[in-house]
Amino acid sequence: MKKITGFILRWIRGQSTAVLLSVALHVLIAVLASVFVVFNIVKKEEKKFEPPPPVERPKMKLKKPRVKMKKQTQPRVSQRIVAKTVVNMPDIQLPDVSGVGTGMGTGIDGYELMPDMDSLSIFGGTKSLATGNEFEGVFYSLAYDRQGNETVVTESTYTSIIRRFIEADWNPYVFAPYYRAAQKLYTTQIFIPTIYSEFGPASFGIPDGPDFDPYLWCVHYKGKIAHKDGGRFRFRGLGDDILIVRVNGEIVFDGSWDAFRDECTGFQPESADDRRYFIGHAVCGVGNWFELESGEPVEMEVLIGEIPGERFCAYLLIEDESVDYDLNRNGMPVLPVFKTAEIPDRVKDKIKYTLIPGEGDLDAELKFNVY
């Protein structure tokens, strides 16, 4: 402490009067400022909440309403109106409808009023929707025998079996050694845009799996067609891999993939437009003209098939010689989808899912219905 005091005294002696006066002035200002701050601190007092005085509100006396009711109420007695003139009605004989509709499934007198729409696919439905106008389809797998065992059929032998079927007048007996699905399908159109090949057997109740490969299969459709006015018609379309059509016992169209047409039928198209325009993922074949008499039904058969697996399609369009059609962006006529009845909306939605716009008219009026 003495050292500090001695240091301060020596420092004061060594300073001038002006410096000492300045230091004293600053010390005085600091003291006055601290005093001013201390005395200006005001301690805030907490405010206590005081509720306002209660307000007296006038009260109204409520009265229970009174409703005057009649003690007795009696309904008026209605008067009966009696006709003075009596009209004798003749007896009406209803026609006998027994036995009608035996081909339209179960329901009221054989008519199925509400078909099972869940069973519909682009390959057909499990029940008939238009009696007499549908094609019956039977599924065969040449990769398996009737017991489900694998066969030795290859791509080359597959086409030879198809050719033997064609040469045997489309006799299903040729497919007898091979697996046949128990479920048949019924359809009024043959138009299947590009899909995976497993949808074919799956539509006939055969799920894809380790015990079944979706290749080397075919479907044989058979039915009748007619046109109310008659005329000249021809088919156009594409099959990946097989699409063959015969009408009234004659092959009028083979739109099979590339060399498969030569291997299966050797069909010779007359039109220069054959395989000129694209449809789906490949070129479109053109059939030869055939004639239909007015209202006269004829047999028609269609064979579709898949060989290596993966993707499959069967586009079948119909062309009326007397009609001028609009052209799509590729220059090909926008033709009606072949059908024997109106296509159900559920099936249309499935077709439109993979159909390229302008490659087929699903809503055209042209139909080949027998009934």
Description:
There is one protein chain. The protein is an alpha+beta fold and 371 residues long. It has 2 domains: 2-29; 117-352, Jelly Rolls (Sandwich), CATH 2.60.120. It is 18% helix and 22% strand. The chain has 6 helices and 14 strands. Strands 1, 2, 3, 5, 7, 8 and 13 form a 7-stranded antiparallel sheet that branches. The model is unreliable at 57-115 (pLDDT under 50).
The first-level CATH class name of the largest domain: Mainly Beta
Average of the residue pLDDT scores:
81
Spans of at least 5 consecutive residues whose pLDDT stays below 50 are: 57-115
Q: How much of the residues is beta strand, in percent?
A: 15-25%
Number of helices: 6
Radius of gyration: 47 Å
> Per the principal axes of the C-alpha atoms, what is the gross shape?
elongated
Largest sheet: 7 strands, antiparallel
CATH topology of the largest domain: Jelly Rolls
The CATH architecture of the largest domain can be given as: Sandwich
Give the tally of β-strands. 14
List the domain count as a whole number.
2
Structural class given helices, strands, pairing?
alpha+beta
Order of helices and strands: HHEHEEEHEEEEHEEEEEEH
Determine the fraction of residues in helical runs and give it as a percent range.
10-25%
Query: In angstroms, what separates the terminal alpha carbons?
Result: 130 Å
Helix and strand arrangement:
Blueprint: H1 2-13, H2 17-39, E1 135-145, H3 155-167, E2 178-180, E3 185-187, E4 191-196, H4 199-203, E5 217-225, E6 231-240, E7 242-247, E8 250-254, H5 260-264, E9 278-279, E10 282-283, E11 285-286, E12 290-292, E13 298-306, E14 311-320, H6 345-352
Antiparallel strand pairs: 1-2, 1-3, 1-5, 4-14, 5-13, 6-11, 6-12, 6-14, 7-8, 7-13, 9-10
